[in-house]
Amino acid sequence: MTWNYSKKTTELFMAAVSGKPGTHLGEIEDADGFGEHGSIACGDALRFTFRVDRHATDPRQDRIIEARYLTFGCTSAIAASEALCCIIEEGDFTPIDALRITNQDIVKYLDGLPQAKIHCSVMGAEALEAAVFNWAQKRGVDLAELGIDIRHDEQEEGRLVCTCFGLTEPYILRKIEELKLTSIADITNSIKAGGACMSCHHTPGGLQDLLDKVNGSRPTTLKQLPVLPMARAPRAQPPTEMSPFKFAKKVEEVIDSYVRPQLANDAGDIEIVDIKDTKVYCTMKGACANCVGSQSTIKMLVEQALKDQIDQRIQVIEV
Ligand code: FES
Description:
Blueprint: H1 7-17, E1 33-39, E2 44-53, E3 63-71, H2 75-91, H3 95-98, H4 103-109, H5 118-139, E4 160-162, E5 167-168, H6 169-178, H7 184-191, H8 207-215, H9 244-264, E6 268-276, E7 279-286, H10 294-309, E8 315-318
Helix pairs in contact: 1-2, 2-4, 2-5, 4-5, 5-7, 6-8, 9-10
The structure holds FE2/S2 (inorganic) cluster (FES).
């Protein structure tokens, strides 16, 4: 599918993937703020890091001086992450002030995003929030005392509504309210819930019921609904004495069933070149071949999938 991106979106994406000086693809070591949002299981993930100039006596007056991101995937994910870093660095924000940046600010910076890609801007705002939460913990800033309520555990707690994307009732309700969502299509465009099997659309306690609950169309019976267990990403088995043959087969299986379909969404592919112990050597193909973001893709998609599903010791190396 060809998306109708603004000139600004295309420019930011091209600058980032060609590694133009001043762009922000990468990760800050020993970052003052570290936040992640999304998951490889959902096809989108963003790691956002920032460094501050520390105030001598009052950490609330720290100023963000550098921001970086790692993400994989489409033009809009990279452009939205790039836009977030630009807004932050151009704005001379304290981490607390940076919380005022919304996904709408990111969309505005990009001169608009296709409706179906709005979730990329939401992912940026969420990763920023998580990074500020992390900074506050490290610097001993009590956000609650300042009246700031970052509900970072919300995605993991509460009744699971959309099992395909692992999204819970409290999180979806908050997003419906914050982003003023009025339809299931709005929800899917903004946070991806409902965008796969669709079984959560009209089931009791599903997306339509949550919309009605926030927007007041009709009463719900959510209190009577059973609490479902959380969907969990596949977990790595404890390291086993797998034979080299079985290990290689398992790596191929995960790449074929899990990684390759996601790369194919962006016309990319991957080839396994060699496997030695727990080191997997690979080459990126197709659209991923000449993308400077391929290191992010390898780290956040390929390596993470193999670690999660086979063995935490696995390292993926691009050759
Ligand atoms: S359960 Fe929500 S899309 Fe499948």
